[in-house]
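Supplementary Methods, section 5.1.

A reviewer requested that the exact input to the structure prediction be made available. We therefore reproduce it here, unchanged from the version used in the analyses.
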Amino acid sequence: MPQNLVDITWALAFAGLGGALGTLLFVFFAGRLPAVFDKLTPGMDEGREIARGNMAAAEYFGRVVSAGIIGLSVIIGAAVLGGLIAGLL
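The structure derived from this sequence is encoded token-by-token as follows.
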């Protein structure tokens, strides 16, 4: 079997493993992110404020949670890219 094919196979295996682990971590932390935000604002119930129509609370909550999700996505992308690089070296 040619060495190039072995290297590509290892790269795909590491990328797949990194992607699977990253996806599991993303699902776990994305589910926990609103709870972390609730702990940062102890005197405010965001769900009730959003249900009452408070647009400022809804936009702030949405932006903070979406920024956290984008940050998690960058970390997962780095893990997959690191798996590809490790497999090719």
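The helical segments are 3-40, 46-51, 55-88. These observations are discussed further in the main text.
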